[in-house]
Amino acid sequence: MASDPLGEEPSRPEGEHQPESESALETARRQLHTAAAHLDLDGNVLARLDHPTKVHEVTVPIEREDGTVDVFTGYRAQHDSVRGPYKGGLRFHPGVTRDECVGLSMWMTWKCAVMDLPFGGAKGGVAVDPKSLSVGEKERLTRRFTQELRTVIGPMRDIPAPDMGTDAQTMAWLMDAYSMQEGETIPGVVTGKPPIVGGSEGRGAAPGRSVAIVTRAVCEYYDRRLADTTVAVQGFGSVGANAARLLDEWGANVVAISDVSGAMYDPAGIDTAAVPSHEEEPEAVSAHAETTISNADLLELDVDVLVPAAVGNVITEANADEIGADVVVEGANGPTTSAGDAILEERGVHVIPDILANAGGVTVSYFEWLQDINRRAWSLERVNDELESEMFAAWTAVTDAFEARDVSWREAAYIVALSRLADAHRYRGLWP
Amino acid sequence: MKDPDIEDGEEQAYECFECGKIVTATQSPGTCPGCGGELRNRSYPLE
Predict the structure, then answer these.
(1) End-to-end Cα distance, chain B
(2) How far is A161 from A105, CA to CA, in rounded Å?
(3) Per-residue pLDDT reduced to its tens digit, A75-118
(4) Is the dihedral of CA A112, A118, A123, A129 positive or negative?
(5) With an 8 Å Cβ cutoff, are B1 and A104 in contact?
(6) For chain A, what percent of residues have pLDDT higher than 90?
(7) Does the bond joining A207 to the residue before it have cis omega, within 30 degrees of 0?
(8) Most buried of A138, A233, A412, B36 (most Cβ within 10 A)?
(9) Residues contacting residue A64 through CB under 8 Å, at least 6 positions apart
(10) pTM, two decimal places
(11) A193 is catalytic
C-alpha cells in the first residue's frame, strides 16, 4: 500500500522533512490527517479513525518436531468496521509487531473504502520465521493461532487472507480449524483458499489486472491513445507480468520490462507474451533480451507510463528528478517514498496510488467471500468482468474528487476513502 | 504495506494457485510440478 501520501497542506510543511523510512503506523496516520484536512472532517470521526478499534495479542504455543514447546506471539489489529467486517492479511514473518499490524490495518481500511468494498481494515500475523517451521509445525501454529482468535474472526466479523509467509494451504487450515470448532463448514471466514474449498478463480492475476485497467483509464483521461502510449514495467513477477501482458494485448507499446537480474529494453516494443514471467522462468527477461539496461535505468526511461511493480521504495529523493515518465502507476506496494512523491508532484508527474491501482487483490477476495457466503462459484470470465466494473467505479469516484478539489491523484484516492468512512460514521453515530 | 526485497538466489517458497502445493527453491520452478498450475511467490502479500 502507499508508503506515503502527499502529506501536504498547501505549503507541504512536513513533506520536505519526511524521513525516507517511517513506520507503517506513522505513515498511515499521516495519510489520514492529510486527507482529513482536505475534507474539513469532523474531529470526532478523525479521533476514532486515528486509533484501531481493537488489537488482539495472543500467545501461540506449538510443539516442535523434537517434542519441545516453543511460544510465539501473534497479533490481529482490527482498525475500523463501520462499513463491514474487518478484512486483511495474516503474515508469518519475524518482523511482525503490534504497531506494524495497526498501521497496515489502517491501510486496509482506506483500500477497502476507496474500492467501496463492504469491509473495514485489519491485519495480523505471528512473529516467526516461516522457514524455521516444518510443515507440521506450521499447521499446528496456524490452527492454534486460529483457536486463539476464534471469537474475534468470522465471515461477518473479520476475514483474514494470505500475506507474507502464508498461502492457500495456511488459509485452508485456518478455515478447517474454525469450522471444526463452530461445528459447520464456514468457507467465508477466510479468503485466498484453494478453489476446491471455496477459493476464487482469478486471484493470482487480479492485482496485475487492476494495474492494467487503471493504466488504461488514466491514459483515456489524459486523451492518450493506448496505441500511442509507451510503457515501462519494473518487475516481471505476478503483478508486473500480468499488467504488461494485458496492456500489450490492449495495444499499448510496452518498451521495457525487468526482473531482479536486469531490464529488457526495445523502443519498438516487446512481445510480452513471449517472455516468461520471473516465476515462470527466473531471469528470463534478461536472457531473452537483445538490449539490456539496469533496473535503475528503466525507471528513468523517457516513456509515457512507468509501472513500478517490483518492490517498495524504488522512487526516492535520489532519483525522482530523473523519472522520465509523465504518469506513474504504482503496481507494487509503496514504490514511491514520501520525498520522492513530493518531487514528482512538483514536476507535474501524475502518480496513481497503489491503494487504487493494485486493489484487484482485495477486490477478488471480496468476490471469493461473496461466492462463499452464497455457496456459488463464479467463472473466471465473471470474476474478470466484475473486477473491471469495480475498478471503473473506483476510478470514476477518484477522478471526481481529483477534479473537484484540485489535489493529486493520491490525495484524491484518500479523500474518496475517508469521505466514505466519515459518512458511515456520521450516520451510524457513537453508541453506547 | 511493506513488500520485502527479494535477493536473487535466496530460497523462496512458491504456492500453486491450482492445487496449493508448496515448492521451496532458490529459483522458481516455473509451473507447479504437481499439476502445472500458476505459482505465487509466498513472500508477497495478495491483498
Answers:
(1) 9
(2) 12
(3) 999 999 999 999 999 999 999 999 999 999 999 999 999 999 99
(4) negative
(5) yes
(6) 82
(7) no
(8) A233
(9) A70, A137
(10) 0.91
(11) no
CA distance A131 to A140: 15
pLDDT, tens digit, 9 for 90 and up, residues A393-426? 999 999 999 999 999 999 999 999 999 999 999 9
Grid coordinates in use for A116?
467501496
Residues 363-382 of A with CB under 8 A from B: 365
Catalytic hit among A87, A111, A123, A138: A123
A420 half-sphere exposure, CB direction, 13 A CA radius: 26
- Find the distance separating the first CA and the last CA of chain A, reported in whole Å: 33
Q: Does B17 touch chain A (CB under 8 A)?
A: yes
| Amino acid (one-letter) located at A284 | A
Residue B28 near chain A (CB below 8 Å): yes
Q: Which residue of A has its CA nearest to B8?
A: A260
Element (H, E) at A424: helix A409-428
Q: Which three cell numbers stand for residue A88?
A: 486483511
Buried b (16+ CB within 10 A) or exposed e, A314-338: bbbeeebeebebbbbbbbbbbbbbb
The count of residues in chain B is 47
Strand A86-92 versus strand A120-126 pairing type? parallel
Residue A4 has pLDDT above 80, yes or no: no
Q: Please report the DSSP string for A299-347 in residue order.
A: HT---SEEEE-S-SS-B-TTTGGG---SEEE--SSS-B-HHHHHHHHHT
Residues above pLDDT 70, as percent of chain A:
95
